[in-house]
Inverse folding.
């Protein structure tokens, strides 16, 4: 009967979320050609030709254009074979409406960049990002051409990112950046400097275009020429650091195995319930590895009942009997359940649900819940069951700093795959250095005793009703509480069978501290989980900010809808 009640509660509490599939338009852009015709007045007339390949239905194309600071995009139009298409502008995104199904569409886009160039003392510069790292679309073959206002014999130019080392100039001064395949998330700024004489209408500003370009060109050459050398040194340093990390991990493993053997040697054979060295919530937290759960909150309530501080009246109702508790976390839990969610003396599960449904109560609930968690952690901390090991932890932290250096080295020289390995190694070693807290000798004994207890239920030869009845009431209550808090279904089900049989036959419910016929861990866990989730939801917030872009904050990308 009790199992059926638990299953029914679990089914009612479970919520099945059917995934909502968002259908995105499937497309590719195999070819893009961009021609920027610089004008004598400093503007630029741009003609872009994009080839879209749609394997299914579509509603149109998207071109994102974000101008540099001080510039502006105007007069955007789109054509297909000379026919003007409808365009809708949303912020820096131009939506070109053109429905179809399984087609290859060639669309031509035209627009004006106002204030596209700057006239410096040593040349007039066009420095522009036609796409940037915010772009989410791959380009199969990208070509960008910059045309001067009139024919010139020479031009200085430089490409960045995807455009690096892709430029060339023809006899008329047209600079072509043949980038080829450009993956999504790439920057590709293009920079061209022409003679000031072909921009007579522009006003001169202070500064040097050629000197800044030359600095960037020298840096690119340095990085390119030393790329292989950097890779060799980077991997050598990575290997040395990896050996140090492996040595540290081996040392950790050796120490752990030695202490495990010493602890296991102190544990007697056969079935037994470990002695009470910590409260049950602290014991469960320590054995589980420092992770809280709603089941632990249930175990904490059962532990208060075991100690005589709380009396269970029914499946949903509880009464406070004695507030003189031993630990701060017990005081915090009583305050949360009986004084905040209850009337000071009585508390029931329906009242907890009603209490947390009121958003005005959420801060108080969250404060009480956090105080209970902190109290449990403090008890574990004060028990001196964990070592600090500062030297070994610092060993890993210093190794993580070394991996950061390697990652930066790889990143500077564009070894991005190698950089990812170095970043992964950084994260792993830093986490180990920050969280590594080995068990003390006493901690290993406590942990191994409860593991021995759990293993007894996996071997029916070691556990039977006679052995269970030979235990004291307190041992049985702690065993059951541990099974609930540790989320060990096997322990709960086995002990349920024995205790329900005892309660039905001859022993009164009150002799157990709490009534096994009343205790419903599934119901209690569900209500506690729901209350905590409801209360914490209102105090959670999400914020995101995006960065990136090409030179001057400009850029763009492509898409479809």
């Amino acid at each position: 009967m009790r199992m059926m009640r638990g299953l029914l509660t679990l089914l009612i509490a479970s919520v099945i979320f059917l995934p909502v599939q968002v259908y995105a338009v499937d497309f590719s852009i195999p070819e893009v050609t961009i021609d920027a015709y610089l004008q004598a007045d400093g503007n630029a007339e741009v003609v872009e030709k994009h080839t879209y390949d749609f394997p299914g239905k579509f509603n149109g194309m998207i071109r994102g254009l974000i101008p540099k600071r001080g510039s502006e995009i105007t007069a955007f139009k789109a054509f297909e074979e000379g026919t003007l298409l409808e365009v809708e502008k949303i912020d820096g995104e131009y939506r070109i409406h053109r429905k179809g199904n399984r087609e290859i569409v060639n669309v031509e886009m035209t627009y004006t960049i106002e204030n596209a160039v700057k006239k410096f003392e040593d040349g007039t510069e066009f420095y522009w990002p036609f796409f940037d790292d915010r772009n989410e679309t791959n380009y199969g073959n990208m070509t960008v051409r910059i045309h001067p206002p009139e024919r010139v014999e020479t031009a200085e130019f430089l490409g960045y990112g995807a455009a690096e080392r892709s430029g060339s100039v023809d006899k008329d001064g047209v600079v072509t950046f043949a980038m080829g395949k450009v993956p999504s998330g790439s920057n590709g700024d293009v920079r061209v400097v022409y003679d000031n004489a072909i921009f007579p209408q522009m006003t001169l500003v202070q500064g040097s275009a050629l000197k800044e370009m030359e600095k960037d060109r020298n840096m690119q050459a340095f990085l390119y020429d030393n790329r292989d050398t950097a890779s060799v040194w980077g991997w050598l340093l990575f290997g040395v650091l990896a050996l140090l990390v492996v040595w540290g991990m081996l040392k950790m493993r050796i120490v752990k195995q030695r202490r495990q053997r010493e602890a296991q040697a102190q544990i007697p054979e056969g079935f037994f319930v470990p002695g009470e060295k910590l409260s049950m919530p602290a014991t469960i937290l320590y054995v589980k590895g420092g992770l809280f759960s709603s089941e632990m909150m249930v175990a904490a309530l059962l532990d208060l009942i075991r100690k005589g501080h709380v009396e269970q009246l029914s499946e949903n109702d509880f009464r406070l009997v004695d507030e003189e508790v031993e630990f701060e976390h017990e005081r915090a839990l009583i305050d949360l359940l009986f004084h905040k969610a209850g009337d000071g003396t009585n508390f029931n599960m329906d009242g907890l649900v009603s209490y947390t449904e009121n958003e005005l109560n959420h801060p108080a609930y969250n404060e009480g819940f956090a105080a209970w968690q902190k109290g449990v952690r403090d008890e574990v901390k004060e028990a001196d069951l964990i070592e600090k090991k500062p030297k070994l932890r610092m060993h890993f932290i210093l190794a993580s700093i070394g991996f950061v250096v390697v990652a930066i080295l790889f990143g500077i020289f564009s070894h991005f795959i190698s950089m990812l390995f170095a970043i992964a190694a950084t994260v792993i070693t830093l986490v180990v250095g920050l969280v590594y807290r080995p068990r003390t000798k006493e901690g290993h004994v406590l942990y191994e005793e409860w593991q021995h207890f759990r293993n007894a239920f996996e071997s029916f030869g070691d556990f039977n009703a006679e052995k269970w009845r030979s235990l004291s009431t307190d041992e049985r209550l702690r065993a059951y509480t541990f099974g609930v808090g540790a989320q060990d279904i096997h322990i709960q089900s086995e002990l349920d069978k024995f205790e329900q049989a005892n309660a039905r036959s001859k022993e009164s419910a009150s002799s157990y501290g709490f009534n096994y016929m009343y205790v419903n861990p599934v119901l209690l866990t569900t209500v506690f989980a729901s209350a905590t989730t409801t209360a914490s939801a209102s105090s959670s917030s999400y914020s995101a900010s995006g960065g990136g872009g090409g030179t001057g904050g400009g850029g763009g990308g492509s898409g479809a809808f």
